[in-house]
Design a protein that fits this description.
By secondary structure, the protein is α/β, with parallel strands linked by helices. It has three domains: 162 residues, ATPase, nucleotide binding domain (Nucleotidyltransferase, domain 5); 196 residues, Nucleotidyltransferase, domain 5; 230 residues, DHBP synthase. Helix content is 37%, strand content 18%. It contains 21 helices and 21 strands. The protein has a nine-stranded mixed beta sheet, with helices on both faces. Helix 6 packs across helix 13, helix 7 packs antiparallel against helix 11 and helix 9 crosses helix 11. The model has no long low-confidence stretch (mean pLDDT 93).
């Protein structure tokens, strides 16, 4: 029964995960504890939690594994700087000393970090390293319900690789093909994220949300697509790409793009963060999303031909592009598609642990074809009455403890039907970037004002960003053109024609905000500009409480569906503790907070209308 701790850190999305005999015991991102979004810090608190959940000490572990091989990354940096010399001298002088001081002595950094967790016998420590893209591949294949699958991993860069095609069979993963730096669809998407005024490594979600505001039929959009293909990228039939590095600065510079060359190419200045969004920005967003989807599809076609596998597993940051995933699903290239819910670097900690369990220790893999092994991705910490009672005393919070969850659920469903916005906090926290009904803000998606209110008064983010629906798994086909489960919110599909509303003939020519508030469906708050939705199907087996709430909502409204967004404000990680939840509740215009069986009404709280007390500013995302 190998006991393995996986770690990701020092880049972004630090995390830890622990497995015992291949079973995932716990997995969590460090940002949830230190409250710094996408933190790169060594995940001391995450490791403490994982060991506590497993009931183990460091000395009882059979291996600790890091999700990346930093020496290979250092080799890439040196070779890249050498190839581009004398360009990049400023970046070289800035980054190499950090590498020499920290990354090259990573074993010491890890050992020192572990010493902060607890004392341990350094002679007993078995410290292993997996390649970055193997960690991604293992995170998705070894948690999938497939015995045999093609595996596609796509991200910015890990060591040398920017994308890999692999074949998974039983307890093995064999890499078939690899795309290497600096040619990367992930870095290309991030370059457009940067150029359109968003933050790299976190703003890619915004770009994906902005793309449907582009006009696919406009001459400008078509010109942008043509210009990107002619000047920036060459796309091969197998999905591999070549990027013209004369337009980019990420290899040796301190920014993503050479702005003057992009301005000449597109006739559009780089957008400054928080400045007005023009239709040209939306059209450029549409263009790069369109090209990303084309590349992902070509890679998938090649993966199918190369492996002859019936199923496909996806991971890496680009696998969180759920629009591309949804379109890939519709092509029906594969019998089924599985996307790791923590596809980014945080999931690499889990993948590293699983790769060592199966491939280093050569353990047999037992697959359940009916379900994956992520346990709904509810792998983080949970909190008892003790912690909630401490919160209530410290904050002098006014709360009512409801005698049973059944009564609580019916009460909350009634409040939702009357327009209330609820902070919903239950059980174990989700692992990965999506809130899946345990750390969620929820409301009625048929309320036409819900999207505007959630964005501006609750989430405090840009008005154009869409919201996702949570729907009973048995009812999903009533609302969406979706024929498969989507428990992790990794697939986008269109809302049914039957609930769509007729839009003006000049819809695509309307200004951004007019387009946003144009009624498109009976579920306005979760229907995006292109009639799509990022869907979470809720299953009784993995989340009985959230499933029961949806059943009660269905009784009240006639629809077993909710709007679901992560429980946080812009720039803040998803809440972890009851204290985090209460602070976020008081810092926004949420109406009601529910923590386990405790219910809090905003207007009953002390100082509920004195926002200055609760206000906390987070770094812009």
């Amino acid at each position: 029964m190998p006991k393995i701790l996986g770690i990701s850190s020092f880049y972004h999305d630090a995390a830890a995960a622990i497995t015992i005999d291949g079973v995932i015991i716990a997995a969590v991102q460090e940002e949830r504890f230190n409250r710094i979004k996408h933190t790169s810090d060594f995940p001391v608190q995450s490791i403490v939690y994982c060991l506590e959940e497993a009931g183990l000490t460091i000395d009882q572990l059979d291996a600790i594994v890091f999700y990346d091989k930093p020496l290979l990354t250092f080799e890439r940096l040196l070779q890249t700087y050498y190839a581009f010399a004398p360009k990049g001298i400023v970046s070289f002088l800035k980054s190499i000393p950090i590498w020499l001081e920290q990354k090259l002595f990573l074993k010491k950094q890890i050992r020192d970090g572990l010493a902060e967790v607890m004392s341990y016998d350094k002679k007993k420590l078995k410290l292993l390293f997996t390649e970055h893209h193997l960690s991604h591949a293992a995170s998705t294949f070894f948690t999938s319900p497939f015995e045999h699958a093609a595996i596609l991993t796509i991200d910015g860069v890990g060591e040398w690789a920017t994308a890999t095609i692999s074949e998974g069979k039983g307890n093995t993963i064999i890499t078939k093909k690899e795309l290497k730096f600096p040619h990367s669809i992930g870095l290309l998407y991030s370059a457009f994220t940067y150029y359109l005024g968003f933050t790299v490594n976190s703003g890619e979600y915004k770009l994906m949300g902005l793309a449907p505001y582009g006009n696919p039929n406009s001459d400008q959009t078509k010109r942008y697509i043509h210009q990107i293909k002619e000047q920036l990228i060459s796309i091969k039939e197998d999905g591999s790409i070549w990027l013209d590095q004369s337009y980019f600065n990420y290899s040796t510079g301190l920014t993503m793009t050479k702005d003057s060359k992009w301005e000449s190419l597109f006739g559009l200045k780089r957008r400054q963060p928080e400045s007005e969004l023009l239709q040209a920005h939306c059209n450029l967003g549409y263009a790069i999303q369109y090209i990303t989807e084309e590349v992902v599809l070509k890679m998938s076609v090649f993966a199918k031909a190369e492996t002859a596998a019936p199923n496909l597993c996806l991971a890496g940051g680009v696998a969180l592009n759920c629009v591309a995933n949804g379109k890939l699903l519709k092509k029906q290239l594969f019998k089924d598609i599985y996307v790791q819910p923590a596809s980014g670097d945080a999931g690499g900690a889990l993948g590293a642990a699983l790769a060592v369990h199966y491939m280093y220790f050569d353990n047999t893999r037992d697959v359940d074809p009916k379900k994956d092994s992520m346990q709904g991705s509810y792998l983080g910490p949970y909190y008892s009455d003790k912690e909630i009672t401490i919160l209530n005393k410290r904050q002098k919070a006014v709360a009512t403890k409801v005698s049973s969850f059944d009564i609580l659920s019916k009460q909350v469903a009634l409040e939702i039907s009357e327009g209330a916005i609820i902070g919903w906090f239950q059980g174990r926290m989700e692992f990965g970037p999506r809130a899946l009904g345990n750390r969620s803000i929820i409301g009625d998606p048929s309320n036409t004002e819900m999207q505007k209110k959630l964005n501006l008064k609750i989430k405090k983010r840009e008005s154009f960003r869409p919201f996702a629906p949570s729907v009973l798994d048995t009812d999903a086909s009533d609302f969406f053109d979706l024929e498969t489960a989507s428990p992790y919110m990794t697939l986008v599909s269109n809302v049914k024609k039957s609930i769509q509303k007729e839009i003006p003939s000049n819809y695509h020519e309307l200004p951004l905000l007019e387009k946003l508030y144009c009624e498109r469906s009976n579920l306005q708050a979760i229907t995006h500009l292109d009639f799509s939705a990022r869907i979470q199907t809720v299953h009784k087996e993995t989340n009985p409480k959230y499933w029961q709430l949806l059943q009660n909502v269905k009784q009240e409204t006639g629809k077993g569906i909710l709007i679901n967004t992560s429980f946080n404000v812009r720039g803040e990680p998803i809440v972890c503790t009851p204290e985090d939840a209460y602070n976020c509740f008081m810092n926004t215009e949420m109406d009601i907070l529910v923590i386990e069986n405790y219910i809090y009404y905003k207007k009953q709280q002390p100082n509920w209308d004195t926002k200055e007390r609760w206000l906390k500013t987070f770094k812009e995302d």
